[in-house]
């Protein structure tokens, strides 16, 4: 079994809408082309950054279809199939398997606070529905559910479980999951603000919601870590954090701001779906400054 295809920088794929707010195949293709050109390892499709929570089942199936159409065989494809019910999650999982995705992933059940036994059963039912490998998604700050190392260990007895995408904030969680899983498991860093720290504490790779706004910087940060160049890795992380704080400090939601950054970088993928808020007039000025900071950082670290 080789897990190399999961190692590297894996941007969380954004929802690409037309001017009326419907899923757009041509704009999805534009984002695929842009990420392919940047040289990322893969994409994580239909997760938080994909606004999955605001999309119908058919829309989510369309997104999985379009991304596979333009990227299958060109990079690693991970389908996020978490949905409110096990039934819908399985529909998405089977669809992704038919499309030839490399792996599935899912958040735990949301809304009701369910016991470990129900969460375990939810993930296990999805895993059993297809032959694909599976990546647990731990993101307590949005789901209210915290994966424990003990439950992770139990899930790993199923050989299809190959890792965890850990978006909790303590890097110690990454260290604990790596200790449980060892070398045959892939731990993905979730919080982009501590990508370098996460890698040093045991993450083999990263899946992130801000990567696509500045893939060059994350690819370089990963290279610095791989080469043991921790001084420069820390410096680039600090610059990345200035940018992320900027992305999160506007009237519009972070994803609306990122989409406008991408628009300025030549990729128009529309705006966000309500209740996420779009950018305001005032934001456009601040976005000019962010784009300039990204360009300067690329010039400083990547040329
Ligand atoms: C809580 C949250 O949304 N976390 C993001 C981060 O990438 C986050 O956007 C970033 O660290 C900025 O805060 C990712 O872990 C989510 C993600 O990759 C996804 O599923 O789209």
TrEMBL record:
Listed GO MF terms: N-acetylneuraminate lyase activity
Residues making up the signal peptide according to the UniProt record: none
PROSITE patterns: PROKAR_LIPOPROTEIN (PS51257)
SMART domains, per database record: DHDPS (SM01130)
Entry keyword set: Lyase
Enzyme class: lyase
EC number in record: 4.1.3.3
Any Pfam family matching the protein: DHDPS
Family that this chain belongs to: Belongs to the DapA family.
Protein's recorded name: N-acetylneuraminate lyase
């Amino acid at each position: 079994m080789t897990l190399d295809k999961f190692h590297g920088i894996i941007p969380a794929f954004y929802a690409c809408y037309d001017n009326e707010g419907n899923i757009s195949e041509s704009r999805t293709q534009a984002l695929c082309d842009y990420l392919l050109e940047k040289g990322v390892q893969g994409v994580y499709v239909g997760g938080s950054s994909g606004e999955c929570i605001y999309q119908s089942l058919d829309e989510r199936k369309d997104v999985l279809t379009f991304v596979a159409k333009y990227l299958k065989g060109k990079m690693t494809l991970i389908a996020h199939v978490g949905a409110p019910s096990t039934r819908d999650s399985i529909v998405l999982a089977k669809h992704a398997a038919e499309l030839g995705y490399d792996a599935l992933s899912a958040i735990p059940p949301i809304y009701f606070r369910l016991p470990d036994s129900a969460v375990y059963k939810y993930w296990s039912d999805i895993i059993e529905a297809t032959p694909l490998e599976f990546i647990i998604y731990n993101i307590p700050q949005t789901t209210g559910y915290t994966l424990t190392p003990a439950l992770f260990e139990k899930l790993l007895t199923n050989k299809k479980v190959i890792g965890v995408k850990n978006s909790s904030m303590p890097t110690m969680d990454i260290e604990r999951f790596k200790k449980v899983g060892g070398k045959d498991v892939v731990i993905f860093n979730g919080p982009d603000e501590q990508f370098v720290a996460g890698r040093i504490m045991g993450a083999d790779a990263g899946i992130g919601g801000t990567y696509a706004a500045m893939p060059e910087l994350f690819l370089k940060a990963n290279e610095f870590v791989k080469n043991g160049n921790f001084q420069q890795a820390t410096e680039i992380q600090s610059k990345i954090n200035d940018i992320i704080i900027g992305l999160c400090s506007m009237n519009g939601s972070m994803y609306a701001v990122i989409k406008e950054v991408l628009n300025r970088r030549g990729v128009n993928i529309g705006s966000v779906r309500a209740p996420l808020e779009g950018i305001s007039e005032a934001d456009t000025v601040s976005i000019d400054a962010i784009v300039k900071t990204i360009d300067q950082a690329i010039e400083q670290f990547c040329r």
